[in-house]
Amino acid sequence: MAAEGLAALLLSTEPEIRWFSGFLTQFWQSPTRPWFLVVPARGKPVAVIPGIGAECMGRTWIEDIRTWSAPDPEDDGVGLLAAALSEHAGTGAIGLPMGPETHLRMPLNDFERLRAALPSTEFRDATGLIRALRRIKSEAEIDKIRFAAQAASSAFTRVPDILAPGMTETDAFRAFKIAALEAGLDDVAYLVGAARSGGYGDIISPPADRPLTQGDVLILDIGGVHDGYYCDFDRNFAVGAVGDAVHRAHETVWQATEAGLAAARPGATCADLFRTMQTAMGGDAEPNVGRLGHGLGMQLTEHPSLTPWDQTVLEPGLVLTLEPGMEISPGKLIVHEENIVVRNGPPELLTVRAPREMPVIG
Amino acid sequence: MAAEGLAALLLSTEPEIRWFSGFLTQFWQSPTRPWFLVVPARGKPVAVIPGIGAECMGRTWIEDIRTWSAPDPEDDGVGLLAAALSEHAGTGAIGLPMGPETHLRMPLNDFERLRAALPSTEFRDATGLIRALRRIKSEAEIDKIRFAAQAASSAFTRVPDILAPGMTETDAFRAFKIAALEAGLDDVAYLVGAARSGGYGDIISPPADRPLTQGDVLILDIGGVHDGYYCDFDRNFAVGAVGDAVHRAHETVWQATEAGLAAARPGATCADLFRTMQTAMGGDAEPNVGRLGHGLGMQLTEHPSLTPWDQTVLEPGLVLTLEPGMEISPGKLIVHEENIVVRNGPPELLTVRAPREMPVIG
Lengths: 362, 362
What we know:
2 copies of one chain form a homodimer. Chain A is of the alpha/beta class. Chain A has 2 domains: 6-134, Creatinase/prolidase N-terminal domain (Creatine Amidinohydrolase, Chain A, domain 1, 3-Layer(aba) Sandwich); 136-361, Alpha-Beta Complex (Creatine Amidinohydrolase). Chain A has helices at 14-21, 54-58, 78-89, 108-117, 127-135, 139-157, 159-162, 169-182, 244-263, 270-280, and strands at residues 6-11, 36-40, 46-50, 64-68, 93-96, 123-125, 187-197, 216-226, 229-239, 294-295, 302-305, 319-322, 325-329, 332-335, 338-341, 348-349, 360-361. In chain A, the strands form 5 sheets. In chain A, strands 4-3-2-1-5-6 form a 6-stranded mixed β-sheet, with helices on both faces. In chain A, a hairpin with a 2-residue loop joins strand 13 (325-329) and strand 14 (332-335). The longest helix of chain A is centred in the last third of the chain and has 20 residues, at 244-263. Chain A starts with 5 loop residues before the first strand and ends with a strand. The mean pLDDT of chain A is 96. Chains A and B meet through helix 2, helix 8 and strand 7 of A and helix 2, helix 8 and strand 7 of B.
């Protein structure tokens, strides 16, 4: 912050506030109330939050907790926030995330009110600063991600036993979610996928009421949560017999992951890792997905991105997904994914490595 | 839009884009990519979205889908978006949500780039317009909320059988989530609560590793999802024998809900409903929560709010939570909640009414 000339950071989103404070609650699902954390360049952070969260925030290391009875149509925390910023930053510059993968979680009208209340204050982009802090995970953070990844891996091994041809995608997703909870996850915050003959059309859809059908390729892509940390990976299954083209494509993305695992060493860049996996797929990365993996932690996807343009250098403690995907035939995809942490030497696989041959359902 | 002089709406958040388009995906969990929907005053909406979502959006009624390969550090959709707005709105005013309970889900830097690309365009607050559209639910929407509320109600009846003293809160929450999925919910997107002797300290916390203990009052507050629509209600349980003060407080909030059910008629206001329930609790509404209920639908909480200041008039089709809460003793809360839809005549209860006596665990 000193190097960037910032007197304080202003945070409004769940992962940023949690990273600095430890404040963990699903209450963020409710859009009604804004929440703020002020991190001054000197001194301890100040939480400016709705009264409903005072007790929960009081269990974190934050001591200075200022509350109002929200929602309040006259002043939904802006006055308190302006006072806290003014007290800790004077007229110094305030950093907040304004760059890629960020947003401001407060009404735009209230942000204008805040600016009007602090007319001499400059608001500057602090995306790079916060990214750099969050990018490398502590061993405590890695333990949580590993737990989530191992629990989800364990649930995936049960899929051939709990799913069967004829079951709808909706029921199959529900059965897998139950298996994932039984394996020890706190939540399955994210489960997308599809089952289609010869490969699926996209990888972000909710389940359809269509039954699993002989010849389908089923993908389940899970964002499983343990103590506020995510795993994010997928597995592919053959419903009965699938064609040779599918098996060949699965072998290709599995081998692309092997290449990624071999290349994920400190000093390599994200772009290097992208190119390694793309080359292993014969240059045929699926362009619509836009990348072949990403950071992982308190969020399902985090900076950095495995793309041709991301020059972020791999360092020990960086947690990544390797996610090579390709088209089997026009409009028919196959995507594979593992979660790793960069170590000195070979990376540590946080997931249980996918079987080289697709498991068969039915 | 004509009355407000708007040439187009610009939407960037999940529920707004879904309400206008039908686009349903959990992919919003990933913060990486922005998504936009332009709703012109004349003509059909235009989706400006990452390529990864083209297939999923293509299954909605939206025909004009413009994509880019996101993430793109050079231009993450801003150029495409500016062109779509310019084409459909010319230099007319663009409405976007800027008011309470809203935020802009795109990087602030990109919003500045958009404004710079459209220097003659005025951006105006359209919160009221969008609220008014979303407030009254169709019967199809009500069916989904009812399904979620009934499934969660069914799971709650199993709680005395599946929870027991000595089980940790963490394990109890997981067991209840499994029961809720087994009852037919797609997801348990939200489950908060606590168990403490004589009442709980707050209602937004994740479960602790503390065991359920004789004398505890346990609250489970579920946001259960069916086809993208939420129920949101809680139930209280006595772990073994709890004191008379707890039983009296439960009776009070149960009766306050009865009073709310009797008062929820077309023509009454949200403020009327607040006062009715507050009076039934002897004027002792818990102030930190800030309200005694709220709207419900595609989001866990929606406009309006049951507060002294919300003059929104109840109309048939308005789905609400009634959520009276009070302090049993200093720092010890009890909160009760039901989901209703306002009808001509008495409201329809979407949840199965809570038993008047708290069910007992163990």
